Amino acid sequence: MRARDVMSRPVVSVDTRTGVREAAAVLAEHPFSALPVVDDGGGVVGIFSESDALRIEPGQDRLVTEVMTSPVEVVGPATDVRVIAERMLAGHLRNLPVVEEGLLIGVVTKHDLIRTVVRDDDVVKAELRHLLDDYAGSRRRWSLEVTNGATTIEGDFADIAERDVIGALARTVPGVCSVELIATEPTPLTWDD
Fold it and tell me: Which InterPro entries does this chain map to (predicted)?
């Protein structure tokens, strides 16, 4: 599973011209412990956290750029969630902005990661069943088993490309940690010309 599969969006952020009091109000309105700070071009330049807000004396209103954490760690949309979890734990981070081509597209929070761990297998199976039924036009072509996130999909695949698509679809479902594909009839090993 990748950052793009679990990240929170739309992203709530503040820009470099935002005052600390305004940023603190944004934090109070949303269930986040920190906000990305972006420049005029949408690039992440820092993180403004609850701790930053608490350091400000009453009546004092400085810009977030004066108190934010910078430089900030970011990840790409294809970063594996295990790598993200390791970086969060090692750096004592509560979230990591997800950046693509220099622009903020999402945020992965600890809460996002925890949701992938505790998802019930029945929920994962139901979501995957829905995806596969949509793909196959509601024809049940594959049987599914999900045990502790380990997913087995068994059935007929038209060719290697379809098998790869089914595997990729399965990996988009939060809670799927591995995918095994079993063809009940031999899958052609070459492309048709």
Answer: CBS_dom, CBS_dom_sf, Diverse_CBS-Domain
Q: Cβ contacts of residue 160 below 8 Å, gap of 6+?
A: 187, 188, 189, 191
Query: 3-state class of 60 per DSSP?
Result: coil
Phi, psi of 86, deg, nearest 5: -60, -45
Q: How deeply is 26 buried, as exposed, middle or buried, from its count of CB atoms within 10 A (0-12, 13-18, 19+)?
A: middle
pLDDT digits over 31-44, tens only?
A: 888 999 999 999 99
Does residue 191 belong to any structural domain of this protein? Answer: no
Residue 188 lies in a domain: no
Q: Please tell me the pTM assigned to this model.
A: 0.63
- Phi/psi at 98 (5° precision): -105, 125
| 111 & 164 share domain | no
